[in-house]
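Input/output pair, single chain:
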Amino acid sequence: MTDIVSADWVADNLDRLRVVDVRDGWEYDAMAHLPGAVSIPFDRFRKESGDSEGMLPSHSQWASLLGPAGISADSEIVAYDDHHGVFAARFLVTAALLGHDPEKLYLLDGDFSSWQLEQPTSSETPDIAETDYSVDPPEATPLVDADRVAAASDDPDAVLVDTRDESEYAAGHIPGAVLLDWRELVDDETRGLLPREEALAVLESVGIVPEKRVVLYCNTARRISHTYVVLRHLGFEDVEFYEGSLTEWEAQDRPLEPGSPDA
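Output:
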């Protein structure tokens, strides 16, 4: 299970971690980065067109990114961005879906802006020994298809969750979905995850509780990646991930329902 770890924990374990910076390349070069971090920008690990595989990169594309970055299948990876972790979470979920051990994947709690307030940064590009990264997707994954998503809205033991913002939800959402803007689980001041009890209260307020199967979607699987990591971190065990999200849903001419969550 991908875990969310503090800046202090990362600083104490830098010598054994592969640190991945998923900001734009110019930010990595011009604005400094975590010591030892390698640059793998977000736009390099997502496919450009939506289909049945959603936005996941191909196996060869993924291997060609991680190998030159010095990452092997046994590496412990911590990822960060400068947007409260949402882009970094997408990197980590992609890694898990393509076979990297989730127990060796970590999301920095916060982001680069919060890190640099108390921790050292570097402008040096580290010397990296390339590896031959092997992709070995697991047999069991949280991925679900559109039919499974459609059925969730009528299942009393499930909750279908739209993680986009309220205006997007109001313009059109999958019928039966509740709204949980992923940013509601983030503390604007610390730029990291809300304290545990606060986060659980936010979730419970829209019917997201550990006893139910939780099915997540957004537009292109970026925002649900953050919510997925948070839910797993909080101990939710039955969380499903609609990789195709609305990109695929709309391409299949499936129905959308307009209206605000309070309507």
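Residues 54 and 244 are 4 Å apart (CA to CA). Residues 86-97 form the longest helix (12 residues).
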